[in-house]
């Protein structure tokens, strides 16, 4: 990836590794291609949990990419919930995720208990080769234990002649 800098038609960096806000450049893709890639990552994370359960239905959304031209760049967000069939499997799922999010290009960036009354365990991991991050919150003390999961892509550039489909 190269940075064409001020010489680019818009006067902003193109194909740079990161935006001014630190969000990595994820390449050129249509909205549908980028959404499909993020869905595939979410499916991989579901598999990493390795316990029977159900994922929530809402699909990915497309939003602006901070620090970039909103007509040329976008990010894909996929927030979802994972509820194991057995409440006791919530700890097993999180342990499996902690192990697997240290393999296959994943790097754990942070692991901490938040300041909520339940001191929920939070796990943040990045996959630099896939230009994606995941934030997982373990809600083990809720009536129905679950994992809150959000997968976020880097900044995609829309191909010339196409428009970003925000949803």
Written account of the structure:
With 167 residues, the chain is an alpha+beta fold. The chain has one domain: TBP-like (2-Layer Sandwich). It is built from two helices and nine strands; from the N terminus they run βαβββαβββββ. Strands 1, 2, 3, 4, 5, 6, 7, 8 and 9 form a nine-stranded mixed β-sheet that branches. Strand 6 and strand 7 form a beta hairpin. The N terminus is likely disordered.
| Helical/strand content category | alpha+beta
- How does the overall form come out from the CA principal axes? elongated
Q: Between the first and last Cα atoms, what is the distance in angstroms?
A: 28 Å
- Global mean pLDDT: 88
From the 3D coordinates, which CATH architecture would you assign?
Answer: 2-Layer Sandwich
CATH T-level fold name? TBP-like
As a percent range, the share of helical residues equals 10-25%
Return Rg in Å: 17 Å
Order of helices and strands: EHEEEHEEEEE
Please tally the β strands and state the result: 9
Main sheet characteristics: 9 strands, mixed
Poorly predicted regions: 1-16
CATH structural class: Alpha Beta
């Amino acid at each position: 990836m190269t940075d064409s800098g001020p010489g680019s038609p818009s006067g902003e960096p193109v194909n740079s590794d990161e935006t001014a806000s630190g969000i990595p450049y994820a390449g050129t893709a249509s909205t549908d291609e980028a959404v499909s890639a993020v869905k595939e990552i979410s499916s991989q994370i579901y598999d990493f949990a390795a316990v029977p359960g159900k994922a929530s239905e809402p699909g990915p959304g497309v939003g602006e990419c901070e620090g970039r031209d909103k007509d040329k760049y976008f990010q894909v967000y996929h927030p979802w919930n994972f509820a194991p069939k057995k409440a006791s499997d919530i700890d097993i799922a999180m342990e499996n995720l902690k192990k697997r999010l240290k393999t296959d290009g994943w790097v754990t960036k942070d692991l901490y208990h938040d300041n909520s009354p339940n001191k929920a365990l939070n796990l943040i991991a990045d996959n630099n080769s896939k230009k994606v991050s995941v934030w997982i919150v373990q809600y083990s003390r809720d009536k129905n234990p679950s994992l809150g999961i959000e997968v976020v892509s880097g900044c995609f550039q829309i191909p010339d002649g196409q428009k970003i489909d925000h949803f």
